[in-house]
């Protein structure tokens, strides 16, 4: 399974807002610079996150995007579903060849359905606050523009 840049950038941007500004308004150019994400792409991502109720926006000189809910209440699953739709292991029945079960016979289909539930649970078990704590444990410093990668 390969995750798209859109989903990964969304998580990184929300981490940035939570880590560097405690969820308060942050301008796109600041996030884009720290996270090395193209600003135009980030604008598109933020529109989807705003529609999903994950981000809010404030206009004006001290404006920017902010978390609409506490970081502990936003999961990686929320972000991926908002940006990419449902987390799918098997295609819908109408996407497979005519008359074929998309995930194979009943036994394998059941195994893939269990896998889909486990993957979704794994995405929902990690919040943006958890990612912030991982950043702190790795020694990242707030307010610095230096980009340091870490694995979630």
Automatic annotation (TrEMBL):
Pfam families reported in the protein's UniProt record: Rrf2
Molecular functions per Gene Ontology: DNA binding; DNA-binding transcription factor activity
InterPro entries: TR_Rrf2-type_CS, Tscrpt_reg_Rrf2, WH-like_DNA-bd_sf, WH_DNA-bd_sf
Assigned keywords, A-Z: DNA-binding
UniProt superkingdom: Bacteria
CC per GO annotation: cytosol
PANTHER family: HTH-TYPE TRANSCRIPTIONAL REGULATOR ISCR (PTHR33221:SF5), WINGED HELIX-TURN-HELIX TRANSCRIPTIONAL REGULATOR, RRF2 FAMILY (PTHR33221)
UniProt name for this protein: Rrf2 family transcriptional regulator
Organism ancestry: Bacteria, Pseudomonadati, Myxococcota, Polyangia, Polyangiales
